[in-house]
Design brief:
By secondary structure, the chain is α+β, with helices and mostly antiparallel strands. The protein has a three-stranded antiparallel sheet. The radius of gyration is 23 Å and the shape is globular.
Length: about 260
Amino acid sequence: MTTINAKAVASLRARTGVSMMQCKNALEEANGDEDKAIEILRKKGASAAAKKADREQSEGLVFIAEEDGKAAMIRLDCETDFVARDENFLQLGQDIADALLSGGMDNAKNVAEEKLPGMVQKLGENISVGEMQVVESAVSGVYVHSNGKIGVVIGLSGGSSELARDVAMHAAAMNPLYVEPSEVSDEAVEKEKAIWKEQLATEGKPAEIIAKIMEGKEKKFREENSLISQEFVKEPGTTVEKYLGDANVTSYVRFAV
């Protein structure tokens, strides 16, 4: 029989809301497979929450807590926007973000495991914590979009929190995938190159100038997908890098529902 540790039991309990003993028994029967354990609980009718645990979570909100150059961000997922706007859901999300800021990942997970089962039962939906991350930097700035579905944390080497927040707002709107052009993956570039080559061949471009055109396209692709080289939304004609002056981006995290 597979040995089931306390962490696995707590994780299943957070998803289903059933007792620790029921979770342990189900995991043992499923040889440690959490999804199979949920099926076992459902078959036994152990909990209404177990029936919800495999339902799709396409809604939710992003929550941020910040203090003295340190920022914590989480994404709390649920099934409907109606529940995402419930005051209990809002409080839970902020409680977990606060716990992440004050005590790190383990503390946030403990709060989630303690409070999620009851919230699932109370609101009648599958609710779970998605992504979580803590950013520490000399200067930090955070931004959550008005709909609560996009959150960004920016860490800077200098400057001000207002400067960092401006860049966070830009990133929320423009969704850069990288901080700087050199970070764009070779895989992403090669995928685009295959498309460009086909387009250029269709256009009948001479072979001798295709290489030069490809270089220009790659440079533009890297810049368009990188935070510091994008045109800053609040000052058209100025890149984010120029807007930052002497400050450098040391951290960039973006969560979206």
